[in-house]
Amino acid sequence: MSKTNLFDLDGKIAFVSGASRGIGEAIAKLLAQQGAHVIVSSRKIDGCQAVADAIIAEGGKATAIACHIGEMEQIQGVFAQIREQFGRLDILVNNAATNPQFCNVLDTDLSAFQKTVDVNIRGYYFMSIEGGKLMKQNGGGSIINVASINGVTPGEFQGIYSVTKAAVISMTKVFAKECAQFGIRCNALLPGLTDTKFASALVKNDSILNTALQRIPLKRVAEPSEMAGAVLYLASNASSYTTGVALNVDGGFLA
Ligand SMILES: NC(=O)c1ccc[n+]([C@@H]2O[C@H](COP(=O)([O-])OP(=O)(O)OC[C@H]3O[C@@H](n4cnc5c(N)ncnc54)[C@H](OP(=O)(O)O)[C@@H]3O)[C@@H](O)[C@H]2O)c1
Prior knowledge:
The protein is of the alpha/beta class. It has one domain (13-248): NAD(P)-binding Rossmann-like Domain (Rossmann fold). Helix content is 44%, strand content 15%. The chain has 8 helices and 7 strands; from the N terminus they run E-H-E-H-E-H-E-H-E-H-E-H-H-H-E. Strands 3-2-1-4-5-6-7 form a 7-stranded parallel beta sheet, sandwiched between helices. Helix 1 (22-33) packs across helix 8 (225-235) and helix 4 runs parallel beside helix 5 (159-179). The N and C termini lie far apart (39 Å). The structure holds NADP nicotinamide-adenine-dinucleotide phosphate (NAP). This is NAD(P)-dependent dehydrogenase, short-chain alcohol dehydrogenase family. Belongs to the short-chain dehydrogenases/reductases (SDR) family. It holds the Pfam family adh_short_C2.
């Protein structure tokens, strides 16, 4: 019997935002292992270059490009570069997000509100528009939005962040419905608590961590690599009939 590999990404061009560390780095490395040429992106080029170099050292294909997804000109600039350098895009992983303020909702600061909306909603939205236009030219592609369990049930003291993650789940369904006709699928990943710099304030505080673990049936925090398999599924042909889905990878938290 001949083997088929539904997860093969040979010849695909993939862009991963926030790929210099954490969940994005794990996603970039797994997509590259499956054969994709991965564009490793975040605000600071040094961290991206280190991840791209590590991929290349393992025999994979990667290019580092800096892009602050909260800046519209940088979104336009990165897509101009992708068009010129690659001429196509098959997989877009919107992963980079921000959560600048932990506070009671009544204490929300306007600049933190604006930054969170600009990066987590406007950034994902216009990255998807630019990515979608490029995918449409080549007959389709897959957009994966990294949202959060907080988009379903808000995290304490994470008001506007949770609101933006709910918006990401909504925008996933919008793009899924309106871009299906162009061969573009769009799905969301909803990570639970994952051991990264982003979550260090929660994971490194024993009292917060123990409270969180009581609500996680698997009784542990996730490793970044445990998010990547779900993204590979959503990026590849294995999920060819899946669009508009919000996939919980949360150790059972939302159950
Ligand atoms: N960790 C968790 O427990 C958890 C749970 C649920 C959902 N999530 C989601 O998972 C995603 C990744 O989080 P993580 O935990 O892996 O975070 P992380 O380890 O802190 O990594 C964040 C990445 O995003 C980049 N970044 C930050 N702001 C950016 C911006 N404005 N434009 C472009 N890149 C930016 C960072 O690099 P630079 O500093 O170089 O820009 C870095 O590469 C986020 O969408 C987050 O909301 C995480």
